[in-house]
Specification:
mainly beta, globular, 2 helices, 12 strands, single chain, about 260 residues, six-stranded mixed sheet, about 10% helix
Length: about 260
């Protein structure tokens, strides 16, 4: 929060209020977005483009992911979770928080069933690989590549839409139920943090559980020039090297 701002006028609070308006009645899977939704989403993107780490009272972390004043720490494999989350606020319509990734950490490929999302880097750099579920070709089902036996329904035919790098100077990365709904996020060249909005929030009881996937054909996934590349994914358990811890959010309080 900048000097002179109150919690109610901080850009974080403005983002939360705009998210509440935007996601009151969002388009669902297969639905065309209304003009009102697109206008509200555009206003939310503009606000997200403006927000900076200082507005959330975030200080860039050291190479090991610890705060600037912290004592030397072991690599993240031996010193707590590779990723932590700061909760800002949550309603039935959306959740908002900050993910912090240590140097070399990744959030594995995962989905957002029936959800919209918006991600804005606060500091550092991330690489985001975005995938879509692919429609079956008119000629009938396509065979998957040879692979070990997998449970029924575990295979997912998909399309790699993009692999892009984002910094605090970049605009937000946006996902919808139909576009860029699966993604993998990698910290690049050091620790990083990003603000994250999901609408509606994850809720396993309402069919919105998080599922993790592995790319069966890794070749080309890191190549940003290969767009619309068809790949097969297989659903997996949460990778053992990934887990997410929590830490307090230091920024302006949000009340809706």
């Amino acid at each position: 929060m900048m000097p002179g701002e109150s919690n109610m006028t901080s850009i974080v609070h403005k983002i939360a209020r705009q998210a509440l308006v935007t996601f009151r009645s969002p388009p669902r899977v297969g639905e065309e977005a209304s003009k009102a939704f697109l206008e509200n989403q555009g206003q939310l993107k503009s606000l997200m483009t403006e927000v900076r780490a200082a507005d959330l009272r975030l200080a860039p972390r050291r190479g090991d992911g610890s705060p600037p004043a912290a004592s030397p720490a072991l690599p993240y494999q031996y010193a707590g979770p590779p990723v932590t989350y700061m909760h800002i606020c949550e309603t039935d319509q959306f959740s908002m928080g900050v993910f912090l990734l240590k140097s070399g950490a990744s959030i594995p490929l995962h989905d957002h069933p029936g959800m919209h999302g918006m991600l804005k880097v606060m500091y550092g750099k991330v690489r985001i690989s975005c995938f879509d579920r692919a429609e079956r070709p008119a000629g009938g089902p396509q065979e998957a590549p040879a692979l070990p036996p997998a449970p029924a329904g575990a295979l997912l035919r998909s399309v790699l839409r993009s692999t892009e790098e984002y910094t605090e100077g970049s605009g937000p990365c946006v996902l919808s139920p139909d576009r860029d709904n699966l993604h993998r996020i990698d910290a690049v060249d050091g620790p990083t943090a990003f603000m994250d909005i999901l609408a509606p929030p994850y809720d396993p009881d309402d069919g919105r559980d998080c599922h993790y996937y592995k790319v069966l054909t890794e070749a080309g996934v890191q190549d940003a020039e290969q767009k619309d590349k068809e790949v097969w994914l297989v659903e997996i358990s949460q990778p053992p090297g990934f887990w997410c811890g929590g830490e307090p959010y230091p920024g302006p309080e949000v009340r809706l």
